[in-house]
């Protein structure tokens, strides 16, 4: 396993050799992704396998990691886990694209394939357009007063059933 993740590769050669590459890819090296995330210090773990299905070159892989995006409600950081499986088939034309069943089309620009761009595209596809915290983060920020927890413990103490439960236990 190589530590340095290669960028530009020859997909035909890699497919014929059934090569696999894996390693860490720094978010800072992915320019377009850097625009979409807040934290640029992190990295993602990537594994990509090359093979052939008939004459077709197939590129399948997995991307794992965590990025920080900006919540569109409260504008605070929002941790977004990445767990992406992808399977792409190299196509030369739009017509070929229609014949694909379980693969997404991958159009090559020349003879080389940029793995960085491929990984970046997959991550950008997986990120939401308008990321938001799952909880109502705006409401949460405004209702953080002490009264809330005080009433909560009071109702617990005044609950007659909790007293009954205690009596029952000691009575046995
Ligand atoms: Zn939020």
Span between termini: 66 Å
Structural class: alpha+beta
Q: List the ligand species.
A: zinc ion
Please indicate the count of domains: 2
Helix content: 25-40%
Strand content: 25-35%
Could you say which overall geometry the principal axes of the C-alpha atoms support? elongated
Number of strand segments = 7
Radius of gyration: 26 Å
Overall mean pLDDT stands at 84
**Count of alpha and pi helical runs:** 7
Assembly level: single chain
- Uncertain stretches: 143-157
Short description:
35% of the residues lie in helices and 33% in strands. By secondary structure, it is an alpha+beta fold.
Topology overview:
Layout: E1 8-9, H1 11-16, E2 20-26, H2 31-36, E3 43-53, E4 56-70, E5 77-91, H3 94-98, E6 104-107, E7 113-114, H4 115-126, H5 137-142, H6 146-158, H7 160-171
Parallel strand pairs: 5-6
Antiparallel strand pairs: 1-7, 2-3, 3-4, 4-5
Bound molecules: zinc ion (ZN).
Zinc ion is lined by residues 71, 73-74, 76, 132-133, 137.
Characterization of the model:
The chain has two domains: 8-137, no CATH class; 147-171, no CATH class. Helix content is 35%, strand content 33%. It has helices spanning 11-16, 31-36, 94-98, 115-126, 137-142, 146-158, 160-171, and strands at 8-9, 20-26, 43-53, 56-70, 77-91, 104-107, 113-114. The strands form two sheets. A five-stranded mixed beta sheet has the order 2-3-4-5-6. The radius of gyration is 26 Å and the shape is elongated. Mean pLDDT is 84; it is low at 143-157. Bound molecules: zinc ion (ZN). This is Large ribosomal RNA subunit accumulation protein YceD. Pfam families: YceD. Keywords: Ribosome biogenesis.
């Amino acid at each position: 396993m190589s530590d340095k993740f290669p960028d530009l590769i020859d997909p035909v050669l890699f497919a014929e050799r059934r090569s696999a590459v894996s390693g860490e890819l720094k978010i800072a090296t992915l320019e377009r992704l850097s625009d979409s995330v807040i934290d640029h210090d992190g990295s993602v773990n990537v594994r990509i396998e090359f093979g052939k299905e008939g004459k077709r070159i197939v590129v399948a892989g997995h991307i794992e990691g965590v990025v920080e995006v900006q919540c569109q409600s409260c504008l605070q950081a929002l941790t977004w886990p990445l767990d992406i499986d992808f399977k792409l088939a190299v196509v030369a034309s739009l017509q070929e694209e229609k014949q694909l069943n379980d693969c997404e089309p991958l159009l090559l620009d020349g003879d080389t394939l940029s793995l960085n761009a491929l990984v970046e595209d997959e991550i950008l596809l997986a990120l939401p357009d308008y990321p938001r915290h799952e909880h109502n983060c705006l409401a949460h920020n405004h209702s953080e007063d002490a009264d809330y927890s005080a009433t909560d413990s009071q109702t617990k103490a005044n609950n007659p059933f909790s007293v009954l439960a205690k009596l029952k236990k000691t009575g046995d």
